[in-house]
Amino acid sequence: MASLVLSAVGTAIGGPLGGTIGGLIGSALDRTLFAPTVSAEGPRLADLAVQASSYGQPIPRLWGTGRIAGNLIWSTGLIETRTTTKQGGKGGGAKTTTTTYSYHVDCAIALCRGPIAGVRRIWADGKLFRDADGVQRHAEALRVYPGSEDQMPDPAMQAALGAAGCPAHRGLAYVVFERLELADFGNRIPNFTFEVEAQASATVASVIEELCSLAGVPFLDAARTGRIDLAGYAVARPASIRQVLEPLRSAFFFDAAEIEGALAFFPADGTPVARVPAGELGAHPFGSEPPPLELRRTAEAELPRQITVQHLDPARDYQVNAQRARRSTSPSTADLSVDLPLVLEASEAKAIAERMVWLQWLGRDTVTCQLPIAYLHVEPGDKLVVLDGEGRARTLRVTRRELRLPGSLLVEAVTDGAAALSRIASAAPAPVPPQEVLLPGVTTAHLLDLPLLREEDDGPHLLLAAAGASAGWRGAVLERSADGGATWERLADLTEAAVLGTALDVLPPASPHVWDRASSLTVSLLDPSDTLESVSEAAVLSGANACLVGGEVIQFRDAELVAPGTWRLATLLRGRRGTGDAIGAHGPGERFVLLTGSAGNARLALPLAERGALRQWRAVSLGTRAEDAPTISLAWQARALIPLAPVHARGERNGAGDLAIRWIRRTRWPAPWSDHVDAPLGEAGEAYQIDIMAGSSVRRTIATTQPQALYPAADQIADFGTVQPAVTCRIHQLSERVGRGAALEVTL
């Protein structure tokens, strides 16, 4: 006896490509190949979707390319990093200490049996973690072990487990993550899935041969299925080889038959091997008269109206997709679903669903007949063309053949549905939105030791403006080192980006006292999505649109977009907040920092004891290594507390040669200019020092608490030997906290 041993869709559907599953029950071959050793089900679509972490998990076997979750096989456990941030104190207000914690882990995840060709993309909690080019941002190192028989232990695992206790996991493909940062994953190891390439190419024949070789099945012939390409197929649960082969059989419509103790696999679209005339039907011993053909037809109500094929779609990053085929006119109400854990294009799956439906209807007839012994060469899976008494031809596909003595064959067959195998179909693509790994990149940071910009900021502080040019920039951490970079202290967290850019041309000198309507400045913004806006002159006078260009604070009325991310600024106020000394010091490629209306500018309170000390600073992008951040050297001067230089100095001499010096003080406070009212002092008390200069040397210092001083003729003679026709002096306003302010140098 010989028979087919697999069915097309399974017993739930039945149909023309096979009848009963298990025609080899009781034979040694059936027990070896098809009888599972444990109670198990065949592969399912969800088997590879969720990452496990348990002993005894089966090791998946992959053919082609697929998406695998894997099993966590080693981990250090959460490693905590404690960071303390200190702000204020020592003249800077109340001291604040903030402690934060971050976590990382080293871990290894087993993928499948090796060897594999490689790992392409990796997803973490469904989001792209690593792209096909190997770009990733959350792990300091990522190593892929292909599962070769000569691979060595991973160094991180070996360091943790010891040389004697660390296996090399030869024959197992796995991935090691070193210093995997967990902040973006709720401080837990995320559910990873991996796009794994097992072979450069796979066919149904290669799967059959590998499985049957494992089972020790002799005389295997699968060569005729070698032309059936297999994009991807993975098995991740205990199952018999029969259960593993059934999804392939359902999708690609090949037959498997036991022929003289060996298995043969072949496509179901072969050509007939014989023609049987009507006179040779019903062969029988003398004395019996069986009918030429016994025909049984499945009722239409028992056939499927619709079949849905669920599959893994590569256009959807190997997520589940579904394609349906439906018979338009049918009394049936049966809607069936077929789970195919195979990588199939949408159109391929659609065509499979169409073929399944048509095969059920085209092959609903089952035929039994007896043939002469001359047809002994006919095997299960072969096709016969049978002629009836009226000369009509019927193509049948043999499912079972049994030798009857004396000298006849009992043949069971179904109506051939091979015509349906040529059906093609198209399906509308349903791709998932493309993902990319958005690297944080380097943070562009400007430490701004500026004059006081707002009254509420009156105190020792430093401004930090930071942003990133990369789309993956999510913030930065400001760190400071007081020992030349040996150790670092975390000072501030930045989660919003400042509006930064670069000046494309050079501002010419201009008066700081009137509107500069002749000059304009073109700037290129770091983030092209940032915008600048025009405002009224009244708004500018009220403080709007302040920015730093080089070392000069300016304000602009007009902002015109001239190219993507490029703006032209015009109608300017120059040298604002005491930066008039920078008006003539501009050069190409200067920094541009928007000071008002930018949420990414942070105020960092510092103790006055830090004034003048050279420190190293760095802004570390979140998700990057601190060592990769550029270092900035800065000696902070607390410029916000330094009084501005006086203006409008004048001198008057009397007949004796005494020199009376007068000036007008300025305030470092951003106070409005009101008529008939002095600007606020902005200091604890009013005090000045005037240095009398002889070249670069100071001959005398005069102290006063009024914006005026007297340099008597007697002091001039004592300092220079004679009354001076012209005196060069430097006038400083004093601060109780930082001492001398900026100097006004004048010759009177």
Automatic annotation (TrEMBL):
Coiled-coil region(s): none
InterPro entries named in the record: J_dom, Rcc01698_C
Tip attachment protein J domain: residues covered: 237-402
Any Pfam family the entry gives: Rcc01698_C
Domain of life: Bacteria
Domain Rcc01698-like C-terminal, first and last residues per copy: 498-593
The protein's name: Phage tail protein
